[in-house]
Design brief:
binds zinc ion, about 15% helix, single chain, 6-stranded mixed sheet
Length: about 220
């Protein structure tokens, strides 16, 4: 079924489905666990609209392409057009906040990295960006103090705090908008904290954001 933006209630959000702009290295502890150097500038990449899926449906994962890693990330749904935006305009351009998985074909990505090749084949495949419902930004007191976590089969795997981002949300959006115009309906992923790892058939995932909401899903390799 085709992905649509929706509120956590399930009601549709009246914005078009666009691209997903992502940042590769935005939490120091995650950079260390993959032995990557600390970046001078945010490392950006894009997932196309065909990567989006509704996270509450079963995660449909491709077989025989090596390990698929989960990366839990805060997702921002944008409502204004941002080009070369200031940090305050960028912050005003956020409509709603949710959670997403930046699913990554880690074996393929590692090969691409050693060869110095782009990551799209590892990061932008169909269904590589499952997204939760969203909560309106007005209902969140302070974006910069949000915490988020991922449990798999009852065990805590990832726990992040927005306060630990190397580039803050307004700074990140402003930087992105200097490279790619952000359009209403685009989603921005803000990076993953430490604890990434492979998904196995039947894994049960619970994703939570502070005490605001939780969503559940399950993995299936097709
Ligand atoms: Zn990521």
């Amino acid at each position: 079924m085709k992905y649509k933006h929706r509120w956590i209630s399930g009601d549709r959000i009246d914005l078009p489905e666009g691209k997903v702009v992502c940042v590769g290295r935005n939490y120091a502890a995650h950079i260390n666990e993959l032995n990557n150097p600390l970046p001078d500038d945010p490392v950006l990449f894009i997932k196309p609209g065909t990567a989006l899926s509704n996270i509450e449906r079963i995660l449909s994962l491709p077989k025989r392409r090596g390990e698929i890693h989960y990366e839990l990330e805060i997702a921002l749904l944008m409502e204004s057009t941002l080009t070369d935006a200031s940090e305050s305009d960028a912050l005003d351009g956020i409509k709603a906040v949710g959670l997403a998985l930046d699913l990554t074909l880690r074996d393929i990505q590692s090969k691409q990295k050693t060869k110095g090749l782009p990551w799209e084949v590892a990061k932008a495949f169909d269904g590589s960006c499952p997204v939760s419902g969203f909560v309106a930004k007005e209902h969140i007191n302070d974006l910069s103090t949000l915490e988020f976590s991922l449990e798999i089969n009852g065990g805590l795997r990832q726990q992040g705090m927005v306060a630990n981002m190397l580039t803050s949300i307004p700074g990140l959006l402003s930087y992105m908008s200097r490279h790619f115009t952000l359009l209403p309906g685009d989603i921005v992923l803000t990076g993953t904290p430490a604890g990434v790892g492979p998904l196995v058939e039947g894994d049960q995932l619970v994703l939570s954001i502070s005490d605001i909401f939780s969503v559940q899903t399950r993995c299936h390799y097709k």
